[in-house]
Specification:
Elements: E1 36-39, E2 42-46, H1 51-55, E3 65-69, E4 72-75, H2 81-91, H3 96-100, E5 102-106, E6 125-129, H4 156-166, E7 169-170, H5 173-181, E8 208-209, E9 213-214, E10 244-250, H6 255-258, E11 273-276, E12 295-298, E13 307-309, E14 311-314
Parallel strand pairs: 10-13
Antiparallel strand pairs: 1-4, 2-3, 4-14, 5-6, 7-14, 8-9, 10-11, 11-12
Length: about 325
Amino acid sequence: MITHGHDACCAPVQAVTASPRPALAMTPARFGGADLVALDGGWFRMGSDDAYAFAYQDDGEGPVRSVRVEKFRIATGTVSNRQFAEFVEATGHVTSAERYGMSLVFAGLLPDDFPPTRAGAPPWWREVPGAFWRCPEGAQSTLDGRFDHPVVHVSWDDAIAYCQWAGLRLATEAEWEYAARGGLGGMRFPWGNSLRPGGEHRMNVWQGRFPDQNTLADGYLGTAPVDAFPPNAFGLHNMTGNVWEWTADHFSPTWHLNGPRENPTGPPSGDRRALRGGSYLCHSSCCYRCRVSARMANTPDSSTGNIGFRCARDA
């Protein structure tokens, strides 16, 4: 069964107001230690017309259309906790989650004796005081063993601040999808149409019965290292699953219907930004957005435990 709309595993919006963002101390870094792959760009078929695209009509995945992107570079993985820590140490950046004093954590990652907190929508999201990038499940948690995992609890605003410091930018949606496809046209995943080709797990998504049973068949409950699983044909890891990735574009479910086909971006304004790739919570029974054409939106100041970002730059 496919649930329609923005549902179970997708990152909800934080309906709270943060204090004004402090000015960022800018000390440009050499691309934040990112390993960037140069891609030639060109024309490709963007979007999807398959059954899942129709199931998520409000997302605006379809129709399939021919799009061209210029040459660009994109990181082989999402920004890791180690890289983000270097940024914070250099700039003193305070994330949106820290300024809110809380962030949204998937309840299944919290210990059984965790104190009651306000439930999000849906209820398996919990508003956890003190949850932020350095303490992903709240004040009792640490990054021990996770410095090579993707940074989470980062808003679009935080991602932009990091990119400015590193001399990088976020990819547009078109660039992101071109990169995720790895040269394969019309496929659901970066490697083809089969979720587990030959029975092999190729990404970090929910295994079992969502949301109360995860068999860990792919090896992970929450996030996985940024270079886990084989890369796609372009050498890019985890373009689907693991964490949702912020892109540069404003989100619209219809802009692309009549928008530009060469180097397209989202609409010039809007109150939400587009995310790509799905996360470790994706499952066919609830939210099957761990596909290269799938998309989602969130407000630029929102943060959750399954949102991160990947950097890009002009060629």
